[in-house]
Design a protein that fits this description.
The complex is a heterodimer of chains A (97) and B (739). By secondary structure, chain A is an all-alpha fold. Chain A has a single domain, classed as Helix Hairpins. Chain A is built from 3 helices and no strands. In chain A, α1 runs antiparallel to α2 and α2 packs antiparallel against α3. Chain A is elongated and about 50 Å long. In chain A, 14% of the residues are buried. With 739 residues, chain B is mainly α. Chain B is built from 28 helices and 3 strands. In chain B, β2 and β3 form a beta hairpin. In chain B, α17 runs antiparallel to α18. The chains are: A mainly alpha (97), B mainly alpha (739). The interface between A and B is medium-sized, with 15 and 12 residues.
Chain lengths: 97, 739
Amino acid sequence: MLTQALLLSGALFVIGTLGVMVRRNAIIIFLCIELQLNAVNLAFVALSRYTGIEGQLFVFFVMTVAAAEAAVGLAIIISIFRHHETVNVDKFNFLKW
Amino acid sequence: MTGVGTAESAMTALAGVLSPSPSAPGSASGVAAQAAEQWEPLLPGLIVLLPLLGFVLNGILALWAAGHSSAAVRAGEEWNPFAGPSRPRTHTLPTLIGPGVMLLAFILALVNFAGMPADLHDPVIRTYWSWIATDTISVDAALQLDQLSMVMMLVVTGVGFLIHVFSVGYMKDDQGYPRYFAYLNLFVFFMLVLVLGSGYATMFVGWEGVGLCSYLLIGYWFSDRDKSDAGKKAFIVNRIGDVGFLLAMFLLFNNFGTLDFGPIFAGAEGQLAVGGTTVTAVTLLLMLGAAGKSAQVPLHVWLPDAMAGPTPVSALIHAATMVTAGVYMVARSSVLYALAPTSQAVVAGIGVLTALVAATIAMQQYDIKKVLAYSTVSQLGFMFLAAGVGAFTAAIFHLVTHAFFKALLFLGAGAVIHSMHHAAHHADGHLDEQDMRNMGGLGKFMPVTCVVMWIATLAIAGIWPFAGFFSKDEIIWYTAAWAGAGSNPFGTLYTVYWAVALATALMTAFYMTRLMVMTFHGANRTGAAGRSHIHEAPRVMTVPLIVLALLSVFGGWINVPDALQESFAGLFGVLPMSEWLHHWLEPVTHAAAQIQIAGFGEPAHAAPPGGGEVAWAMISTLAAAVTVAVAYRVVGTNKYVPAARDPGPAGVLRRAVYNKWYFDEVYDSLVVRPLLAASRWCWKVIDTVVIDGFVNLTGSFARLSGWTMSLFQTGQVNMYAFVLTLGVLCVLGAAVFLQ
């Protein structure tokens, strides 16, 4: 059971990571990050069956942080959109040298 | 409470300075120690402190005046420091303090002189506090009173006091009046430290201090570029000499473990071989220091330029006291010099060469102060000749008499310049107030100055019975006597020195007469407009001149040689005090004399070509008198024209002499220009290219590497995510595969 759960978690994480790397839309990148977090959550829950309750506890932390992150991140994205009329991250390269 | 405590401790410290713990010198035989115990010098510390107090008080007044004048400049107002309520602080108080502290110091010195027992064999040392105390070296702030320092102290405070009084008249209208007296008092303080210090270290403090004051006073009118440059020149040339002094001190410390005079001179004969390398090196290095301070060839070039200072300063510092510090130092180190015959020959050679070179230059100068400056250099050369041949008493004797007549000559020249200055104000066009071609016939206007300067001229020319006759004759005689000493290895050389010294003495008579004739006799060349403003100096200036004139007449009688006592020179036994100075200085000089007699044999009783002391005294005074008379006639018939219309001297030799044998030009091309070129090269190449290049290279490297790294900052979020993932994968991969 654990193997299948970890495989699923790994697959989800890889999908999330690839999404972050290749997608241009900020909202999609954001969703992919959520996917990564939840992949990790799945791994935590699956492993907690063998190692103890700490894994499940940690999931709650991750969910709270993810909620807070979503609130802040979405606010930033909205703010960017108001200025630039786009959420394409290719256009947001003004923090470079 | 704290204030009271501080004041109390200050009082205790002051009391400690005024009445220190007496400490007899280490090597005292029973009788000598007793004599030293019996004599308590009266407040020697106060003699030194009084001029320092004068400096502090005058310095405060000078700062006050400077603040007011700069405030007036800022406000765009005219501030006359000598009018209204500021006058007490800018004139009256400095006038009282400046000469006042000198008078008190002189009186104290006289009291001590009167109380000093004649049989005092060892110097009395007063230790005030420990200046440097380490495991290897300990130096006390201590004063040493013995016969030599007593003579120097009397000259410094006595002649110094007269010059301070003269300055009251000379500097009357100068804006920096309090500052002038502050510097002058500070100079006397350092000069007293120099002559009273009980070791080379203490002496060096005074040595550097007088150098500083010399710099400050040469550049006293510092807004004039030439004058401040002259101050710098004096300071820098003196540094060359000071290197020698310092190295000599290091060598002495290396050999004796101390810098105090007592142990060094007591142990020198036992520890150092006669003519050995160490003692020769020490004495030659000391001579380098002395040559810098006393303006001996080849370091004499600063003294004529030092005439940029106010004339009383030239009289005090650059004639009577500071420049003789080198002679004092050599005389103080007489034991060391007696142990190094080669150094003695070098010292005497430098002395006689300086005397000759400076005398030739003095014969062809037109600036009245330049003639006197070269005359001073020449006379200092005579003193070094005396010190070099081992006649240390004669050196100090000439130092004393020279202080009298040369101070008088400078102050007289000051009175002339003072008067010419007023004339220059009213003359048509520019009038150089120091150029003798613009003078002539001043004797009619300034009779007192003329008479006293003639006295000084006869004294320096070596005409009996004036002071210079006795001192200069003694130098020349001792040169001859030691030249004929049985086993003197440099006998022939000394004979040459003697002949040159005789010739130089006659040149002295010539250039001084020339100065007097050009200044005071013949027709006046000042021009009608200025002439009516030439006047005799005020009494505050003429009285010091008259006192110095009396000293120039009678000063030589303190050391009438025994051999001359019964002849014409001693007025057939009438002149008192036969060889008084000689006997007085005996405790200081007898050790050196013993060594010298042991090495050279007894001095001869006849000059190299024959003839005794009396005969040569008569020859030299007659020759000097003839030279004066001839020079008076010859120069008197010369037709001088005012400087503005004079094309300058004609002929190669005259031109070379007029241009001071091109010493300055040679130094300029051999030292100054190469040094400037080397400095410029160091600046343009070493500093700008190498050092700046290296610093800039490190900066450029940081910038380059920063720029390279900044290429990764594309601003593309996906790119960052990719790199991040790659990094994580690498770390994980390493963790897995390297386990």
